[in-house]
Amino acid sequence: MAKHDAELVDETVAEQVRVYSRSEHTISRAQISENALKVLYRLQKEGHEAYLVGGCVRDLLLGREPKDFDVATDANPDEIKRIFRNCRIIGRRFRLAHVHFGRDVIEVATFRGDGNKQLNDLQVLDREGRLLRDNIYGTVEEDVWRRDFTVNALYYRLKDFAVLDYVGGMADLNSGTLKLIGDPETRLREDPVRMLRAVRFAVKLGFILDVECQKGIHSVVDQLSSIPSARLYDETLKLFMSGYALQTFEMLSHYGLFKILFPSTEKNLISKSGDAARKLVTRALQNSDDRIAEGKTVTAYFLFAALLWEPVQSRAKTLMAQGVGEYMAQQDAANEIIAKQVKSTALPRHITMAMREVWSFQSKLDVCVGSKPSRLITHPRFRAGYDFLLLRAETGSASPELAEWWGKYQSADETEQRAMTQPPRNGSATKPKRKYNKRKRTTPINSGTDTSEQ
Ligand code: ATP
Ligand code: MG
């Protein structure tokens, strides 16, 4: 927010607040988690102001079940820590308190103040206008302007069960509009991750981005690459694992954000062989959305494996054309593509290991004779490897007969399995073993792996 805007806010904020009394909104105490209520009551008892704010208020007003409950208060992190024994302070950019109740965590944030009035070492902007630290505390009237979207800036006050609206969030909620608070471009520059949040909320809530927000994204899109890869990994998981992955992918692509998160995938999608890549990516995302809708789990490594499979295949092809053997070409291509990817979204080592296993399963599943199949199906990663084969078969990059064979093999009894894996009469295997060229490699075996440390 520009400085003169901030001064304006100070003068007019008292008149601007619209208080929705209990009878004017739909939130009832019964919908609020017991632990969140405990935190609110306790803070009040200690003489502090405390509100529910953010996604929980937004979702309750929309009749949706909140993912989590966030509290905002005038108590500072040290005071919060003194009040709750089960509390940990986290974050550097934003210091926050996590109050733990077993596995449930209530996030308690101290009201942010207005940094424009007192820019000092508690609030740090870089040359691009990015907010590196934001630990100036203030009042609820100031806090509201530090939030991202109007619909995320509604405060529920337990004292009188009222909802406080300083920025027209209720009207935007009713019209299904996602609007940034303050000057859109400035707010997106301060924290480019807000662009990803815009896409995530628009898709999840079925909202439209208001025109100014869209324009802001178009001018700030490149700034996303300045965000640390570890934070982008976390955001990517939220984007792709919340049940709306396909729509999210389409909207990210539309705004040019996808290419910053997945540069190798984007390059592949717009190449000559892009159609095959698109089929696999969209099918994987749709499958993942379907699984979530059915209450099944999805894993991050499977999604990353699907998003990066075609780039790995296309790099492996190039290496093979240069004379590298198939096995080494696959390994080297995987190393290179992972090394590139972790510059955008850090990938924890356990994720890259699982992705590699899924990928290397693909050539192993080519062999349908002898004792190998019986060993493969006991492997802990078999199911993921087989599901990946199905995905490839459905989208034309693996043989449907092979996928069907493995389907039958799994449901067969031992005798049938033995019969299925007998070599044909002439003695040759249905699929010859691959010949590996172990000597020729282009990159060291451990190059470009994981960045859990980033
Ligand atoms: P979700 O349903 O994903 O939890 P949410 O809106 O609650 O959505 P959180 O990440 O839990 O999102 O953040 C809680 C609130 O904190 C937001 O609603 C918003 O008011 C504020 N907030 C979070 N991240 C930012 C950000 N990057 N910039 C400004 N405000 C933010
Ligand atoms: Mg939340």
What is the element layout, followed by pairings?
Layout: H1 3-16, E1 18-20, H2 34-45, E2 50-53, H3 55-61, E3 70-73, H4 77-83, E4 87-90, E5 96-101, E6 104-110, E7 123-125, E8 131-134, H5 140-146, E9 154-157, E10 162-165, H6 169-175, E11 177-178, H7 184-190, H8 193-205, E12 208-209, H9 211-220, H10 229-240, H11 245-254, H12 258-261, H13 263-269, H14 274-293, H15 300-321, H16 326-344, H17 349-364, H18 372-376, H19 382-394, H20 400-411, H21 414-420
Parallel strand pairs: 3-6, 11-12
Antiparallel strand pairs: 1-10, 2-3, 2-9, 4-5, 5-6, 7-8, 9-10
Helix pairs in contact: 7-9, 8-10, 8-11, 13-15, 14-15, 15-16, 15-17, 17-19, 19-20
Bound molecules: adenosine-5'-triphosphate and magnesium ion.
Write a brief structural summary.
With 454 residues, this protein is α+β, with helices and mostly antiparallel strands. It is built from 21 helices and twelve strands.
